[in-house]
Amino acid sequence: LEKDAYIHIDFTENNNEVQFIIENNFELQQKANQEGIGLKNLKRRLALVYPKKHSLSFDVNHTIYKVTLSLTLT
After folding, report:
1. Region label for 39, one of left (φ > 0), alpha (ψ between -120 and 50) or beta (otherwise)
2. Nearest-CA neighbor of 54 among 41, 66, 68?
3. Contact 65, 58 (CB under 8 A)
4. What integer pLDDT is reported at residue 32 of this predicted model?
5. H or E element: which one contains 30?
6. 69-73 long-range contacts, CB within 8 A, separation 24+
């Protein structure tokens, strides 16, 4: 983006759970229908390090991309 670009990062901890929320805006472009290798690697690493103790979600709404990652630390 050339104008009004932003990224918001929120980090919270509560009762042995850590949550990261990252949101940014982007310009509309033609999107590929497949995810890249980076996301596949991230999901695999989370499954290995935090088996059944994590959640990862992605949300796209018009020109806003939001990722939420929760980790249980016990």
Report:
1. alpha
2. 68
3. yes
4. 55
5. none
6. 69/19, 69/20, 69/21, 70/17, 70/18, 70/19, 70/20, 71/17, 71/18, 71/19, 72/16, 72/17, 73/16, 73/17, 73/18
Judge contact between 20 and 69, C-beta under 8 A: yes
- Residue 28's pLDDT is 82
The number of residues making up the chain comes to 74
pLDDT in tens, 4-49: 999 999 999 999 999 999 999 998 875 656 667 898 999 999 999 9
3-state secondary structure of 40: helix
Q: pLDDT tens digit string along 37-48? A: 898 999 999 999
Average of pLDDT values for 62-66? 92
66 and 59 Cβ atoms separated by less than 8 Å: yes
